[in-house]
From TrEMBL:
Entries under Pfam families matching the protein: MFS_1
Protein name per Swiss-Prot or TrEMBL: Putative inorganic phosphate cotransporter
Protein's gene: 106087761
Source organism (scientific name): Stomoxys calcitrans
Lineage: Eukaryota, Metazoa, Ecdysozoa, Arthropoda, Hexapoda
Assigned keywords, A-Z: Ion transport, Membrane, Sodium, Sodium transport, Symport, Transmembrane, Transmembrane helix, Transport
GO molecular function: symporter activity
């Protein structure tokens, strides 16, 4: 009989850090997606509060506004991983969120004279700031989560994605219709961002050892957990643990993760952006102007994320599946079921609108399993380099939502032509299917050898032993 491990308080500092990460994702996703509601209110004041200015922007200009965020977002993913290693997650995430929040405040004061172009520029700036966020979140999870709780705590933090998306749609509409009008969307977005920044500066710590509030028991539990980061100041990490670029870039598990997350981005961008357009053009349903229809899939996704979380905990605790089995099983559900659903949506008739809504909602909801399936895999492969891995993976994943609308534009010449849309859905289904298959074959949850802080040093010593001439040359250099 094994003794119980002392873990500290039931709700300790590690849980507070996870809650702060959840709030961080929530407030940033509110800022990320509230433009969809704001643009509708700004171009059709009668649907909200007619006492505020209305702008005559065409569909192309509105599309530029909505997509411009991603122009900046994918650019700073990789720098986000580097800055997190250099300065720590605390300061980098603060800069990311405060920058995005203050940029949102500019919108009501600049659109009158700058038009849709200045709105695009502000959205690009917001994207640049928010691109720093997720590499830091994964590095922070790696620093604070004991390996036994990593799956649960990481998934809990990531439920902020669905929460923020739902709140952006629901609250955005309520605020736009209130006395604050559409400018209130920017004011509230800024306020919640600044409020989170205050909480973060007070309670966040880069590592458990830096925290002044953590108990000795909880500190020992985190630091002695298998695969936890060594006891070191996070600011010293880059000096002690150089990035093994060659090993990462020649690692099949890393490429499996990259392919899976890119496939997820392709498929989800189709679910998110293209199905509403299809349902409008082919089925005659204006999903975008109906707040309930717009938010329902994401509310379902939010609920399903907790279903997946509870189910994964049960499977792991009862040892029905290993972590590797859970990751690949959930990822398969999240990819292959929506792949089939995408094809099915393309055959729904105009007299089956309810079925179309059910299929769309189910596809998005089931896709929530991709968080546990592959999104957290960066921490499995390398806690020490989780931020760097996330930066690389997210750069690829967030470049794809820029490409998919262009492909749709090449294929779909007539929005009312069902056959053209079926081609779009078939391509996305194939990407979903092959992306997950690659992940099943080559993906892994094993800690990679290149995570070791002495990996490069050990590799160099091995090369020297294999090459006596080079070893002698090095020894001669050290002598002089």
């Amino acid at each position: 009989m094994t003794a119980d491990i002392a873990k500290g308080p039931i709700l300790g500092q590690r849980h507070l850090q996870i809650f702060l990460l959840f709030l961080s994702i929530t407030v940033n996703y509110i800022a990320k997606f509230n433009a969809g509601v704001a643009v509708v209110a700004m171009t059709n004041a009668e649907t909200t509060n007619p006492n505020f200015p209305e702008y005559d922007w065409d569909e192309m200009q509105k599309s530029f506004i909505l997509s411009s965020f991603f122009w900046g977002y994918f650019v700073t993913q990789f720098p986000g991983g580097y800055l997190c290693r250099r300065f720590g997650a605390k300061i980098t995430m603060f800069i990311s969120t405060i920058g995005s929040a203050l940029a949102a405040l500019l919108i009501p004061f600049t659109v009158d004279w700058g038009g849709w172009q200045v709105y695009c520029g502000i959205r690009v700036i917001q994207g640049l700031f928010q691109g720093l966020l997720f590499p830091c979140i994964h590095a922070h999870l790696a620093a604070w989560c004991p390996v036994e709780e990593r799956n649960r705590l990481g998934a809990l933090a990531n439920t902020g994605i669905e929460c923020g998306t739902v709140l952006a749609m629901f609250l955005g509409g309520i605020i736009a219709a209130s006395s604050m009008g559409w400018p209130g969307i920017s004011y509230v977005s800024c306020a919640v961002g600044v409020f989170w920044c205050i909480l973060w500066l007070i309670f966040a710590a880069n590592t458990p050892r830096e925290s002044k509030l953590i108990s000795e028991v909880e500190l020992n539990y985190i630091e002695t957990s298998k695969n936890a980061l060594k006891e070191m100041d996070v600011k010293e990490t880059p000096k002690k643990i150089p990035v093994p670029w060659k090993a990462i870039m020649t690692s099949w598990p890393f490429w499996a993760l990259l392919v899976a997350r890119s496939a997820q981005s392709w498929g989800f961008s189709t679910l998110q952006a293209e199905i509403p357009s299809y349902m409008n053009g082919v089925l005659g349903m204006d999903m975008k102007s109906n707040a309930m229809f717009s938010a329902l899939p994401y509310f379902t996704m939010w609920c399903m994320s907790y279903v997946y979380l509870i189910l994964s905990d049960i499977l792991l605790q009862r040892k029905v599946l290993t972590l590797n089995g859970v990751r690949k099983t959930f990822n398969s559900l999240a990819f292959w079921v929506p792949a089939i659903g995408l094809i099915a949506v393309g055959f729904v008739g105009e007299d089956q609108q309810t079925l179309a809504i059910v299929l769309m909602t189910a596809n998005v909801g089931i896709n929530a399993g991709s968080t546990i399936g592959s999104a957290l895999n960066t921490i499995d492969l390398s806690p020490n380099h989780a931020g760097i891995l996330m930066g690389i993976v997210n750069t690829s994943a967030n470049f794809i939502p820029i490409l998919t609308p262009l492909l749709v534009g090449l294929i779909v010449k007539n929005e009312e032509d069902r056959t053209e849309w079926q081609i779009v859905f078939a391509i996305s289904a194939i990407v979903f299917g092959l992306g997950n298959l690659f992940y099943i074959v080559f993906g892994s949850t094993q800690l990679q050898p290149w995570d070791d802080e002495n990996f490069l040093k050990s590799s160099q010593e091995t090369q020297n032993e294999d090459c006596p001439t080079e070893k002698k040359s090095i020894e001669n250099k050290e002598k002089y």
